[in-house]
């Protein structure tokens, strides 16, 4: 389920007894906790009715005891437990050893909790072990919420609202440009809403009292991402502009980007172009292409389609094979990394058409 269902429960005053939040986008967790405090807790008694527990340093008995204490001058008591290791699929960390008897008691307790308590487990993992009994019991008694990245219109509205809250306006096209530059939408990136918020705050500080946010402002402040540099490099290759492609590559290495990371990103970009071109030529819509290649926004898919026009399908396939062979030669020490990359760029761009 999405985090919005949790927010709906809060707004309707229909909090369930137990929730399990998991995923990378912990910014959404902060929104949920803030909303619960705002709607359910009197700030004067917050220390009595809101308990935060470090799951790595607690026992299951301590969690149950925290839930059993009745709320004081409040409708609900909120108990938040973060990083409890029992939700992880494999491996252990520094957490306290969990007693099997206690785990069974916590499993049973979740099915018979008091309506006066809302227990929220927070797991900062992309996946949880849904086979575990405690996860199944939480699903029966409450709600399991995946804190996934915002996408599409919802993400655009969030960016717009961040600027609006500071009295700023930004056009939709400039929002899309900002998101693309941020690389938040890329599946392989670790960027979160915290990072976007930081970038937005820098833009707001930069423009001062001016109300309108422009593309130029975004360019001036937003951090240069490797993804965008790679896109430009591949663009220069497609235009047969070998000199600019080499220059872009040298700029990245001077900036401290590792050769292997640049190689990986080029392989990824060429693969995306190849897949996009094949699907587009078969008549797939932009939305369907995005689903097939795991790209979250139509804006990026359209950019891939446009860039793919610089290449034939055969050229992209040959380029991908060349990428992989160059990568292997660099990793096995058959050729110096920087020299190997420069040879690849020259050969790829000069063999087009």
Automatic annotation (TrEMBL):
It catalyses: DNA(n) + a 2'-deoxyribonucleoside 5'-triphosphate = DNA(n+1) + diphosphate. Keywords: DNA replication, DNA-directed DNA polymerase, Nucleotidyltransferase, Transferase. SUPFAM superfamilies: P-loop containing nucleoside triphosphate hydrolases (SSF52540), post-AAA+ oligomerization domain-like (SSF48019). It is an enzyme of class 2 (transferase). Signal peptide: none annotated. InterPro entries: DNA_pol3_clamp-load_cplx_C, DNA_pol3_delta-like_C, DNA_pol3_delta_N, DNA_polIII_delta, P-loop_NTPase. It comes from the Bacteria. GO terms for biological process: DNA-templated DNA replication. Transmembrane segments: none annotated. PANTHER family: DNA POLYMERASE III SUBUNIT DELTA. This is DNA polymerase III subunit delta. The lineage of its organism: Bacteria, Bacillati, Bacillota, Tissierellia, Tissierellales.
